[in-house]
Amino acid sequence: MPQIHDAERAATADFAIRLDDLGYEVADRPVLSGVTLHSSARRIGVVGRNGSGKSTLARLLAGLLAPTGGRIRINGQDLYRDRRAALDTVGILFQNPEHQIIFPRVSEEIAFGLRHQGLDKAQAAVRVQAVLAAFDKPHWHDAPISALSQGQKHLVCMMAVLAMRPKLLILDEPYAGLDIPTRRQLARHLHRADTRLLHISHEPADLEACDELFWLDRGRIVARGGPSELLPAFTAEMIRLGDLDDLADLAG
Ligand SMILES: Nc1ncnc2c1ncn2[C@@H]1O[C@H](COP(=O)(O)OP(=O)(O)OP(=O)(O)O)[C@@H](O)[C@H]1O
Q1: What ipTM describes this predicted complex?
Q2: Which superkingdom (predicted)?
């Protein structure tokens, strides 16, 4: 039905990621070069092998790093310069929950970002209870995070980020090292959440549900497309590379 199509387009068109000729250098060495990516898709995937620049791209998108060249706009905003807008716009989940978690108890960890967003203590407490209830974990309120498993720590990070109601959630390989049931459970929670996703991974299976994909190779976007065309091509190339005996790429 064309009306639904138009309505869907209008709903997604109001949120856009625009990267123009983005570059990032460390000590004169390019990590990302000439990255141009425009998308209003609800679930965007970025696939690339180890060292292709994925985590750097995630941090740039979240406004945690400043580009050394080009321009990034998320919803028209420069999130590196406008930290307040960044807090309200983008959440990020990292590979390792230990890099994200600061506080000893679950409720404190979830409340932290909310207080930064400007909620007072009572408002944050209400939001913490609500998110714990939504994930069926009210009994985790005072739980010491150090006693949780790796998968449970990932879930705490996810709850803390989603409690802030980001418009865009960036996933930087958050499922690495988790078993299949845990990955599937976390993925199900995420897909229920009312947020756009930008999922970064070297694992094609993580990205099958994306609407639009970008292939990052040696700091450049080398292909763009839907999962059914791009993921088989990526997998074939990874197998081809894996069959070579050349480890030069791992030398850094
Ligand atoms: N601050 C930095 N200092 C030195 N080198 C860096 C820095 N940040 C990134 N790099 C280099 O840039 C390249 C891309 O790193 P990045 O972590 O973004 O890749 P990645 O695709 O996320 O890799 P992986 O999948 O292995 O996590 C690597 O060669 C890395 O060593």
Answers
A1: 0.95
A2: Bacteria
Residue 70 lies in a domain: yes
For residue 68, is it within any domain? yes
**What are the tokens at 236?**
């074939």
Nearest CA to ligand 1 atom 29: 51
Give the per-residue pLDDT at 4.
35
Residue 118 lies inside a defined structural domain of this protein: no
Residues having CB within 6 Å of any atom of ligand 1: 26, 31, 48, 50-56, 202, 252
Question: Using CA atoms, how far apart are residues 58 and 71, in angstroms rounded to an integer?
Answer: 14
Residue partners of 206: CB distance under 8 A and separation at least 6? 45, 173, 175, 199
Distance from the alpha carbon of residue 56 to the mean position of ligand 1, in angstroms: 6
Report, as an integer, the average pLDDT of 35-40.
95
* DSSP one-letter code for 207: G
Amino acid at 219: G
SS3 (DSSP) at 48: coil
Q: Which of 173, 152, 155, 172 is nearest to 163 (CA)?
A: 155
Ligand 1 midpoint to CA 129 (Å):
37
CA distance 100 to 62: 14
Show the domain range for 198. 4-102+166-244
Q: What is the CATH number of the domain that holds 215?
A: 3.40.50.300
Q: How far apart are the first and last CA of the chain?
A: 51
Residue nearest atom 5 in ligand 1 by C-alpha distance: 26
Tell the residue number behind the tokens 């609407």, with chain if given: 211
Could you tell me the pLDDT band of residue 252, with boundaries at 50, 70 and 90?
low
Using pLDDT thresholds of 50, 70 and 90, give the confidence band for residue 93. Answer: very high
Instruction: Please determine, for residue 35, whether its predicted confidence score (pLDDT) is greater than 80.
Output: yes
Neighbouring C-alpha atoms within 13 Å toward the C-beta of 77: 20
